[in-house]
Amino acid sequence: MRVNIPLKRQFQKKLLSWYNQRSRPLPWRETRDPYKIWVSEVMLQQTQVKTVEAYYGRFISRFPSVEDLARAAPDEVMKYWEGLGYYGRARHLHRAARDVVDRFDSRVPDSFEDLISLPGVGRYTAGAILSIAFGKPEAVLDGNVIRVLARMFQVTDDVRKASTQKMLWSLSESLLPKRCIRDYNQALMELGALICRARNPACSDCPVSRICEANRLSIQQELPVKSPRKPVPHYEVTAGIIWRDDRLLITRRPPKGLLGGLWEFPGGKLEPGEDLEGCLKREIREELGIAIEVGARLTSVEHAYTHFRITLHAFDCRYRGGRIQLIGADDYRWILPRELDGFALPAADHKII
């Protein structure tokens, strides 16, 4: 898709003028430090700004430089990320920090090729770091930008298709100004977050509404076009609060996969034909090689992940024998209840607590 030069310049000018007057005073906008901007961009992936603000300051205070993050123990990094969700982001960020120290002499790379060689850094994150921290002419394309571009230029193809994504990246690149790249990309994302919202877009407050095709045709709510998602599956899951005298058992999940590296009350998913108590006994035997006595159900909590939902049933249990084997877990601890605060646990386990 080609955009004529007068329209492009008008779009850039109006957007930058609006951003200079209306941008939010966010902590990561007060720095040019590429490490701190990188941390903010990782935190902001699939997470609301208000939520990130609460975590960003605490994380940066504890890990003020890439060297500090690289030196930290994985458990400590996960504890400072606890509650922010999408924990793979924290694992990748930690590994990438070590990469930066080892491969790039503790300096965040300022080239696209070097940045995307780091764990967890893709095209969007690399573009955001390069444009915001270094002022380089790199495009960005996240959910907010997709929505703005789809409405502004009446993109009616399914934005989840690879071909449409390719076209939108090309469109985003073609709209980059020659100057003020840092502010322009942030303005584009800010417009999507504050004005060009998914529901009830504030078109009357939009700086580019007069040149927006969706606004002209009154089809804002119909764009962007997205193919329907598959139904979200639901699973019944058990967890054991397993006691040995006055201590309870927690296990650490393997570093890869869902909630990797977090500690949890051990258990697992209900299989066809099982009851909850039988499921819990089997899971503990298969993952840890020990026998337990399952007592009363303490609570059941609902929790939603990105692609599925669970009902987690927690049972009061007693250790009855066997030596713990790390078959399906990465580590274990017998701890006093008051020590739970020292471990990073998933949100569902916090609901149980």
Commentary on this structure:
The protein has 353 residues and is α+β, with helices and mostly antiparallel strands. The protein has helices spanning 5-22, 34-44, 49-62, 66-71, 74-81, 88-103, 112-115, 123-134, 143-152, 162-174, 181-194, 213-217, 276-288, 347-352, and strands at 234-244, 247-252, 263-264, 267-269, 291-304, 309-321, 331-335. Helices cover 42% and strands 15% of the residues.
Question: What is the helical fraction, as a range of percent?
Answer: 40-55%
Average pLDDT figure: 96
Rg estimate, integer Å: 24 Å
How far apart lie the N and C ends?
53 Å
Number of strands: 7
Class by SSE composition: alpha+beta
Low-confidence stretches: none
Keywords:
353 residues; alpha+beta; seven-stranded mixed β-sheet; 14 helices; 7 strands; elongated
